[in-house]
Amino acid sequence: MVSVTHVAHDIEVTAEGLQAELARLELQKQALERELAAVVAHLASVQRTLSTFESLMRDPAAGERGQASVATASQKSAAVPSPGTPDTTTPATTPSASPKARKARSGKSAGRPAADAADPDGQKQYGQLTEQIMEYFAAVGDVDVRARDVAAALGRDSDSGSINAVRSTLDRLVGTSRVRRAGRGLYRAQAS
């Protein structure tokens, strides 16, 4: 009887150890699923960007017209990880079907920026913003201004996206030394 009690105790200890191991493995599985979802989202992003670049390489004329669309495709690619998180169950259950479906979707979405690239008005509007900002700085002279003030003066303060477009253009102009940063959030015309 002593040996039966000893065996029962060994089984109980082993069961407790296995339960602890099971809990640890469940946590590890969840962490791996999150990591897989992030990798799948990044893969889709890279595929879309690569597809866009390949289409631009096939049609060099579209490359000149579509520089703005490449930036748009990159911005869309950067937004992919947050929607990719809920798809954690799909890649875990059917890994072979998931990449094919994502690849097909990436081809469709990559085609949209290429179609936008053929729009000459889109490129004209893109260039117009830069020129409008430079004209604004020429008019205001040697004054520190905020991006929101520039957007308001240009009539582009209707939503945060328009203001951010002005802010991004101002940052590009700072990078090319056409405008200088006068302080935190302040811009000033570059002294000629």
State the main characteristics:
192 residues; mainly alpha; Arc Repressor Mutant, subunit A; 2 domains; 3-stranded antiparallel β-sheet
Question: Stretches where pLDDT falls below 50 for ≥5 residues?
Answer: 77-124
Task: Decide which structural class fits the backbone.
Answer: mainly alpha
The fraction of residues assigned to DSSP E strands is 5-15%
* Amount of helix: over 70%
Number of helices: 9
Average pLDDT level = 73
**Total of domains:** 2
Radius of gyration: 27 Å
Task: Write down the secondary-structure element order.
Answer: HHHHHHHEHHEE
Distance between the ends? 100 Å
Oligomer: single chain
* Tally of DSSP β-strands: 3
Shape: elongated
Main beta-sheet annotation: 3 strands, antiparallel
Largest sheet, order of strands side by side?
1-3-2
Summarize it.
This protein has 9 helices and 3 strands. With 192 residues, the protein is mainly alpha-helical.
Q: Care to describe what's here?
A:
With 192 residues, this protein is mainly α. It folds into two domains: 2-118, no CATH class; 121-189, Arc Repressor Mutant, subunit A. Helices cover 78% and strands 6% of the residues. It has helices at residues 2-58, 60-65, 67-78, 81-84, 89-93, 97-117, 120-140, 147-153, 160-175, and strands spanning 145-146, 179-183, 186-189. Helix 1 runs antiparallel to helix 3 and helix 1 (2-58) runs parallel beside helix 6. The radius of gyration is 27 Å and the shape is elongated. Residues 77-124 have low confidence and may be disordered.
